[in-house]
Amino acid sequence: MRPSVDVYRRHARANVHTTRRPFTALATVATAAHHGYELWAGVGLVFQPFLTLPGSVALWVTSLPALFYGAARGGRRWDAPLANAAGAGLAGAVVHFTIWPWELRGGVPTLTEAEGLSPRQLPAYNAILWTWAVASALALLRETPAGSRRWFALGLLNVVPLRLSAKHHFAWAREQARANPAWWNRGLQQP
To answer: CA quadruple 122, 67, 159, 175: dihedral positive or negative?
Structure first.
């Protein structure tokens, strides 16, 4: 005897996985988009001056999928690391508006210059930064348990070292583009 269609439907519904923390997952994707966009644009990868390009790639291709997994399927044991990552994500987005010039456009702060990006690259970059910031804030407000909010605050305190790191990265990347031109610093190379 063949199982009824209802049995198949119940089984299919039971195997559909929902993302437990969609804003945290989106903040993680936005982090990856930020890092990928900068590397694609030829300004290097976050933490590259300290870890080298292979080291920073290794950091991000291991940590971001782990955080995404935690956001999508993880239980309570992921509360602290995800809250901390959301705080650091908000800090990372905010850092850009403390270093680079910006103006209000339609009531939204918008970078007018950043990282050596061209004017045509900035709209997508601004969209990534705002997605990153808003998703990180919503992760706090909607998905972070009250007992883990201190971890978000700790992540947010990264704004100071991230700002120092970003300033160092940009100076280092410009020097590398001059002294050692490579594919990853092509956006900073003088014509």
So the answer is: negative
